[in-house]
Amino acid sequence: MPAQVNDRRRFLTGALSALTAGIVARPSRVASGEPETPPRIGREHYVTLGRTGMSVSPVAAGLSLKASDLVAAADAGINYFDTAEKYLNLEHNRMVGQALKGRERKTIFISAKFQDGLQRELTASTDEIVVRVNQCLERLGTDYIDCMLIHNVQNPDALDNPKWLAAYERLKSDGKVRFLGASTHDPKLSDIVARIVQSNRYDLMLLAYNPTTDGDLYGSRGWPAIPRLLEESGRKQIAVSTMKIMIGAVAAGAAKGVGPDGIDPNDIKARSKYLDARIAATRWVLSNPNVHVVQYTMTGPETVAAAVKAATSRFTATDKVVATAYHHAARGQGCPVPCPAPCVDACPAEVAIPDVLRHRMYYEHFGLQKQAMLEYGALPPAQQARVCLDCPSQACVQACPEGRPVKDLTRGTHALLTLA
């Protein structure tokens, strides 16, 4: 086994051992005969979501593979639910509706994301967008969406798309939508966030944000414009929701065996067994006064409990040790999210390398094989990795700041995700 991997494991194991040393086990409620009380986020922990005025839990339930996990999230006091057309090929909309059935609608905040023809090509018409939002409402089983978002903005100009804005105004006047939003984890993150903040047209932005983005906790170069832009968004009361809070390999699902029990913490089936670093990162993100919410992928009762724990306690020195240890253990084993993606600029073709590798992540580590294949197939042919099969250049590999074998990964992704 490479010495580097052993070093990472020793570093993490030592850090975690230091944290647990001297901790005395307490008798459980079950052992003492007391009923076990499920963890819950109380109203005292809620935050005001920018100028929307909504009182929401500081953690939100995002993608889930089972409706039962969303039900558990709602039962635990989480009242912000994020969904998208792309999630489980429309099925996630229905799951959210099922989870929220019978609950008081005015106490729930639902954000829904729309993608095709919006974020890149800008081809969707106003009427098409209105139809899609109405179909989403039917699947959700509700009369209105609190916030409609462009999903995964990749072109700042999409934010000014008159067809999208006209659809929003029509839907808002009909009482179908209350607020406007946009999400992004694109390499052009700073430019896109700057457009959102400067235009002051959007009520909410959902962006990739973690201790690597800021550069504070891990001492990385970070994205120097983002802290300043978040401060400006705070002054304008733009709501800020965050995603991809785990750095590098955690987001890409590539760090093998770095957990204390040898479990891959990125495996969708095993993630609930190793959540300390996720809790630490959540607390760090929420310590920024200009960030309102962290979105969680819910993959079982343990992840719901972790979300509650992160939302009801403050960032501490212990969290810094755990988060930093995990960062060192996982660094270089996956693509940072967000990433400036210098591999794209170096590519002699037009391969959308971040998109290609993200779809591979969904396939291998999120259990979303069908969705990953369909989304990869929907990329314009020039942006797929077919050209990588015969490309003699190593420019993408040389450009990668993480030292990843980019060409081998894109070649393998094309073979993995290409539909016969």
Give a description of the structure.
The chain is α/β, with parallel strands linked by helices and 420 residues long. It folds into two domains: 43-330, NADP-dependent oxidoreductase domain (TIM Barrel); 342-417, no CATH class. 43% of the residues lie in helices and 12% in strands. The protein is built from 18 helices and ten strands. It has helices spanning 3-20, 29-32, 67-75, 91-100, 126-140, 162-173, 189-199, 211-214, 225-235, 248-252, 276-286, 301-311, 317-330, 342-346, 353-365, 369-378, 395-399, 406-417; strands at residues 47-48, 55-56, 59-64, 80-84, 109-114, 145-150, 177-184, 204-208, 239-243, 293-298. It has an eight-stranded parallel sheet with strand order 3-10-9-8-7-6-5-4. Strand 4, helix 4 and strand 5 (109-114) form a beta-alpha-beta unit. The chain is globular, with a radius of gyration of 21 Å. The two termini are 36 Å apart. Mean pLDDT is 83; it is low at 1-37 and 248-263.
Question: What is the mean pLDDT?
Answer: 83
Global geometry: globular
Q: How many beta-strand segments?
A: 10
What structural class results from the helix and strand content?
alpha/beta
Count of helical stretches: 18
* Radius of gyration based on Cα positions: 21 Å
Strand order, sheet with most strands: 3-10-9-8-7-6-5-4
Q: What's the main sheet like? A: 8 strands, parallel
CATH topology of the largest domain: TIM Barrel
Which CATH architecture of the largest domain would you pick?
Answer: Alpha-Beta Barrel
* The level-1 CATH class of the largest domain: Alpha Beta
Q: In terms of per-residue confidence, which ranges show pLDDT below 50 for 5 or more consecutive residues?
A: 1-37, 248-263
Helix content class: 40-55%
Strand content: 5-15%
